[in-house]
Automatic annotation (TrEMBL):
<keyword id="KW-0233">DNA recombination</keyword>
<dbReference type="Pfam" id="PF00271">
    <property type="entry name" value="Helicase_C"/>
</dbReference>
<dbReference type="InterPro" id="IPR001650">
    <property type="entry name" value="Helicase_C-like"/>
</dbReference>
<keyword id="KW-0067">ATP-binding</keyword>
<dbReference type="GO" id="GO:0005524">
    <property type="term" value="F:ATP binding"/>
</dbReference>
<keyword id="KW-0238">DNA-binding</keyword>
<dbReference type="GO" id="GO:0016887">
    <property type="term" value="F:ATP hydrolysis activity"/>
</dbReference>
<dbReference type="InterPro" id="IPR045562">
    <property type="entry name" value="RecG_dom3_C"/>
</dbReference>
<dbReference type="GO" id="GO:0006310">
    <property type="term" value="P:DNA recombination"/>
</dbReference>
<protein>
    <recommendedName>
        <fullName>ATP-dependent DNA helicase RecG</fullName>
        <ecNumber>5.6.2.4</ecNumber>
    </recommendedName>
</protein>
<dbReference type="Pfam" id="PF00270">
    <property type="entry name" value="DEAD"/>
</dbReference>
<dbReference type="InterPro" id="IPR033454">
    <property type="entry name" value="RecG_wedge"/>
</dbReference>
<dbReference type="InterPro" id="IPR047112">
    <property type="entry name" value="RecG/Mfd"/>
</dbReference>
<keyword id="KW-0234">DNA repair</keyword>
<dbReference type="InterPro" id="IPR027417">
    <property type="entry name" value="P-loop_NTPase"/>
</dbReference>
<dbReference type="Pfam" id="PF17191">
    <property type="entry name" value="RecG_wedge"/>
</dbReference>
<comment type="similarity">
    <text>Belongs to the helicase family. RecG subfamily.</text>
</comment>
């Protein structure tokens, strides 16, 4: 059976070299097996036959039995149309062709029963069906078929080459005939029984040609489960092997730094979620395996303090730690914030960024190597080869989505035994997606905001209401608050955006002559940016006009208003990030989304989601649905999502189930050597050998 299914596609009856080439190029179908695994998008329910006198105006997908009794050609303005009179025992209708007349006349027979299928129109009391699908009733009865007709994905080229939906169906039926559809079991008995799965062969048959909706659903469930199960199995296994192979530094001590800070200098009570995550990290650090953990927490959930306390664990065991942030501004802010928190402890904290002076840089390099620096904070500059630690025990990356896997790997090499790695992100990725994308990372979630936060009030205002918005800004500033006004900055139109920003700045300056205004954008020198940020932080300026450079992490608790200009041009996650810059203090905060009147449906959904929702995870789910997972994560990771049948968004409960079973099985039987898991072992080995799984996981 294996052999038949591995036959190159051109050898299949009805394919040949020409069509074979097209199938390979257009659909990636190389073998019989690929064809069997080419799944329909949907099914047309053909359980029902209509009579002509039952037809409704403009119905699609109707199926009838009847005969052609007469052809005629009708001249019309452009070209001709061929019309056939079609009758059944209840009435008469017309079949219409606008092209292919010759073929129709030569091939379709008069007075013989046909099964026809298509969409109907109604005009002047007569129903017509343009370009119907037709099959002789006799053939219809002979063919292997079910009532639910599969509809396969198609392309223009396929249509042009005559590889129609019907042709694909026939080819698949041919493969099924030849192979006998004897697929071996791929899962274990426990899963099959507990999930009440139909057999693999039944599933394959019914996913193409189900008898009814129920069987289709069962077939799809089994195949989706299987697809997700083996991906999860691979991801979790990789993680386990990694833990077994990569020895980690063991931090057993909870010592001086951690305890003193916790008892004497912690500025607030930790939330339950923060405590839980710190425990998870502590247990990783003591486990003997290298930690690779992703910490997700909405903006303002308090990830920084978790980072600091984790770094203390490294320090207390005689190791150094580093914290890398994606921007200069953010690094400086972390440096200032953490230095402040540690001022009563004798922790030595340094900052290294692209704009660190050469002389300071030299000093830092030396002190890192002789161990005088405990914590190094900075940008990408930390990754440079010249930056060598005496003994780096923990590396933390803030805002993971700005960094790639390559950077993580570079940090690994900063110590002879790789340091523990903690990546933090405030771009909440729906948990299910995170599981697939970062399957090799363990995940912690801070799902609780510090107490006393007032939810940010978010409204949508049209540009025409700008004066009211300005009045509101004035009121807030009079109360002592500060205001952000953010303009889009999209790479492709950088010049135009820059102009918008400058125009905006000027009009704000005109409108608010009594206030000081800061401006920050990507084309400024880092030192100038910092200077402006700093003025805003020190409350010397009341309004900050900026592009999205302030998106990530910046913390000015006194700022209570976020105005986002051209809000329709931002993605949901980005809007949520920007909004997270306010609502950091005790005051009521506001986010105002400004747009013009012309809005696409997607923009409306985004705006509406923002005004009705404050939860980053829920927003991320909507974003995922709007944009699709590839876009959300950037192209580099979208390879993970080339699923054949499952949909990472819609099928996330199947994904959770699959992950649960994969993890359970590997816990009990890490090498899949148990006899009861032999089907899984074999199927997995086959997938690995065919490298099927590597299409998902790069
Ligand atoms: P993020 O997760 O976005 O990085 P931060 O770590 O910057 O969040 O924290 C946001 C703000 O909340 C900071 O001002 C921080 O001091 C404060 N904060 C963090 N944890 C708590 C807590 N448990 N109780 C009160 N305030 C907290
Ligand atoms: Mg942060």
């Amino acid at each position: 059976m294996q052999n038949v299914l591995h036959t190159p596609i051109e050898y299949l009856k009805g394919v040949g070299p020409n069509r074979g080439e097209t199938l390979r190029k257009e659909l990636g179908i190389h073998t019989y097996m690929d064809l069997i695994n080419f799944f329909p998008n949907r099914h047309i329910d053909k359980t029902r036959f209509y009579k002509i006198n039952e037809l409704q105006r403009n119905s699609s997908d109707v199926q009838l039995v009847g005969k052609i009794v007469h052809f005629k050609t009708v001249e019309q303005k452009r070209g001709k149309r061929l019309v056939a009179d079609f009758i059944d025992e209840t009435g008469r209708m017309e079949l219409v062709w606008f092209r292919g007349h010759k073929w129709v006349r030569e091939n379709l027979k008069l007075n013989v029963p046909y099964v026809i299928f298509g969409k109907t129109n109604w005009f002047n009391g007569v129903f017509s069906m343009p370009h119907p699908e037709m099959e002789l009733l006799a053939d219809y009865k002979k063919n292997l078929r079910t009532a639910m007709q599969p509809v396969y994905p198609s392309t223009e080229l396929l249509q042009k080459k005559g590889i129609t939906n019907r042709a694909i169906m026939k080819l698949i039926q041919e493969v099924m005939k030849q192979s006998g559809l004897r697929f071996g079991e791929t899962l274990n008995q426990e899963i099959v029984q507990e999930l009440n799965l139909i057999s693999k062969s039944e599933a394959i048959f019914n996913v193409h040609f189900p008898k009814n909706q129920e069987l289709l659903a069962k077939a799809q469930f089994r195949l989706k489960f299987e697809e997700l199960f083996f991906i999860q199995l691979q991801l979790i296994r990789k993680n386990l092997l990694h833990k077994r192979k990569i020895k980690g530094l063991i931090f057993e001590e909870i010592g001086e730094n951690f305890n003193r800070f916790y008892k004497e200098h912690l500025p607030f009570e930790l939330t339950g979620a923060q405590k839980r995550v710190i425990k998870e990290i502590r247990s990783d650090l003591g486990s003997g395996a290298q930690m690779n953990r992703l910490l997700q927490g909405d903006v303002g959930s308090g990830k920084t303090i978790v980072a600091l306390m984790s770094m203390f664990m490294a320090l207390d065991n005689g190791f150094q730690a580093c914290l890398m942030a994606p921007t200069e501004i953010l690094s400086v802010q972390h440096y200032n914030g953490l230095s402040e928190l540690c001022k009563e402890l004798n922790t030595s904290i340094y900052l290294l960024t692209g704009s660190t002076k050469t002389s300071d840089r030299k000093e830092i390099h030396e002190k890192l190597e002789n161990g005088e620096i405990d914590i190094l904070i900075g940008t990408h500059a930390l990754l440079e080869d010249k930056v060598k630690f005496q003994n780096l025990g923990l590396a933390i990356i803030d805002e993971q989505h700005r960094f790639g896997v390559a950077q993580r790997a570079k940090l690994w090499k900063k110590n002879s035994i790789p340091p523990h790695i903690l990546v933090m992100t405030a771009t909440p990725i729906p948990r299910t997606l995170a599981m697939s994308l970062y399957g090799d990372l363990d995940i912690s979630v801070i799902d609780e905001l510090p107490p006393g936060r007032k939810p940010i009030k978010t409204v949508h205002r049209f540009d025409s209401n700008r004066l009211k918005v300005f009045r509101f800004i004035k009121e807030e500033i009079m109360k002592g608050r500060q205001v952000y006004i953010v303009y889009p900055l999209i790479q492709e139109s950088e010049k135009m955006d820059y102009k918008d920003l400058m125009d905006g700045y000027e009009s704000i300056a005109r409108e608010f002559p009594d206030y000081q205004i800061s401006i920050v954008h990507g084309q400024m020198k880092p030192a100038d940016k910092d200077y402006e940020m700093d003025r805003f932080l020190r409350k010397e300026t009341q309004i900050m006009v900026a592009t999205t450079v302030i998106e990530v992490g910046v913390n000015v608790p006194n700022a209570s208003v976020m105005i986002i200009e051209s809000a329709e041009r931002f993605g949901l996650s980005q809007l949520h990030q920007l909004r997270g810059r306010v609502g950091r203090g005790a005051e009521q905060s506001y986010c105002i989304l400004m747009t013009g009147h012309k809005l696409s449906e997607d923009s409306k959904t985004r705006l509406q989601t923002m005004t009705s929702n404050n939860d980053g995870f829920q927003i991320a789910e909507v974003d995922l649905k709007l944009r699709g997972p590839g876009d959300l994560m950037g192209t580099q990771q979208s390879g993970v999502l080339n699923l054949k049948i499952a949909d990472i968004v819609k099928d996330n409960s199947i994904l959770s189930t699959a992950r649960w079973y994969a993890s359970k099985i590997l816990k009990e039987d890490p090498d899949l050597s148990d006899e009861k898991n032999r089907h899984i072992r074999n199927a997995f080995a086959r997938l690995m050998k065919d490298r099927t799984i590597w299409n998902y996981i790069s």
